[in-house]
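Morning run. Coffee first, then this:
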Amino acid sequence: MDLIRTKEISKSVTTRKRNSKRKGKRKTPTSLKFLKSTHTVIRMHLAAASDLPTFLETAGALNLKGRRKLVEQALVLIDENFVHLPLKESMHGVDPVQKLRLLQHQLDQTTTSKMGSEFEFHREMINIFNSVRDLHTNYLLPAPFADKVAFLPFDIEECFDNGKPHYIASHLVQGFTHPHFKKGVEITMWNGIPIDRAIAISADKHAGSNLAARHVRGIDGLTIRALRRALPPDEMWVVIGYTDLHGVEREMRQDWIVTPTLPDTGGVDTDSRTTAAASQGIDIEADIVQRTRKMLFAPKVIAEERKHHKISKHKAGSGQSLTSTMPGVFSAKNVSTPSGEFGYIRIFTFSVNNPEAFINEFIRLVELLPQQGLIVDVRGNGGGHIYASEGLLQVLTNVDITPEPTQFINTPLNLRMCKRHETNPTGQIDLGPWTESINQSVETGAIYSRGFPITPTEFANMKGQKYHGPVVLITDARCYSATDIFAAGFKDHEIGHILGVDDNTGAGGANVWTHGLLQALLQFPPPADPESPYKNLPNGADMRVAIRRTLRVGDQSGTPLEDLGVTPDSRHAMTEDDLLNGNVDLINRAGKILKNMPVRQLGITTSQSGSTLNIQATTIGLSRLDTYIDGRPMKSIDISNGTHNFQVTRPAGATLLEFAGYKNGDFVAARKIEL
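And here it is:
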């Protein structure tokens, strides 16, 4: 039993404080020494890590004036910008506006000498924001919490055996060693609490929109805490009860470690007046957790991101992985299953500055993978740029993509903001489409504006279909925001089969704006709005709010995505083999689904002699192929599986060559080629 008595720990902490005062420099605690053996690419970053008691000594600088300012600004965002407020009040029986007013009243009656603990203030603010169960609408803690994450040196994942959940230590930080606690041990107790109950307690501290989302975040919160979004753990260390690899029940005590958050090198300045900032759909907590997992358990990916690669141009052979220009975004490989060989692409994030480059890299990778079936895995993807998520759909389907419409809540403040940007003075943010309907709400009493898409329809269809085989999309309850929108679009456009490892996606159906962006939008174009309610926040604190809600298209047209999410077509219960052996059962299950789906292929190569276009079409699963130039029909031929050569005349100035493939009269495949 690897336990140290509480008395001994308290004594060691006191001694450490005393020694630090005497010597001016703190020694590295024993619990952190293994960090010197981590991967070289993150070792310098983790050199700034500390134990939890040391970190807590740096907190407590938020004064009474700062607290009042934070509550005042929270009231503005929740009462006048938060698009889901009516929905959340009804669904969850909460009144965050009244709670903030009560807190504001308490602070107005308080003096500096009686203002209480900073931790209690943060806890109250977090609880108010969490009460609406919206992972877009956040109170983000100030310094010293803002850029820190607390972690334990292992990861926990859930698997099932005969329908019963088990919790496995699936990854360990490099350098962390223990005589009995190894990869694959089963966690049974947590600080003396049965593990399933401990997860439920942890889940209640998170703002997941549905039970599945809260459950998985409860698991994540056991070992990783993004201190931007959550207070540090109450306990200085955790006592973990587990069954070792030989079936022996044991206990281990592990200290919490606090380290700076891994920087988001591919993200967007979300406070800037740019299209990218205004088009964000991202769960900031999930994004931080994802980056922390990459730092702790996949440092080789970070090393790959820092290299300049010779990119593969040859198709992936059996079991072969492809090198991506965006290794922190994509992982692509050829997977061999009992049902055949298929392509597999994991999309870790949609958080990119350049959505077109993101789509182009996906196309490049997918064209090097087997064409008889594709697995797209978006588990754990917290979202990012909405253009990237909705723009990717076109690559996988022959039908035109209809981006999801979005709505503001009708308030005077939102109207002021839209009016300032209805003529798009920056060439970046255009809020004009929403202005008229918000203005009309004064007469109509409508709660929401009319719906207009964030992703331009032209962008969502500019490249067209590039992959023609069957597709399985793998989701989980950590899929959120832009990833929710991607999954919804995948289902609404009937692109393929959704295989979920949870009962639902995270159900985050909104565009999220930061307090900084809202403030900037009333400052520009000059002169700044003299009555702007947005004020600078103290100590590096921040807030975000769900500003525009998204609505489904297709058969579920008009249904909000928020809180409902996307239900998979079938469910896979993760196995221990999945956790410890590269998702083997999950991929085999996806392969089995792909095997029973129709295979299409439409490959085109062209050359030109004068005004004559020589076309070679390689097809599978088609019976007719129609050719268009700049939208005008040019040729229609009957075909079968194989290669077909034909010619068409290119009119002067023509720029776009299009193909439509049919099977027994049904339109099933398309391709665009710029001339």
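The domain at 601-674 is CATH 2.60.40.10 (Immunoglobulin-like). Good start to the day.
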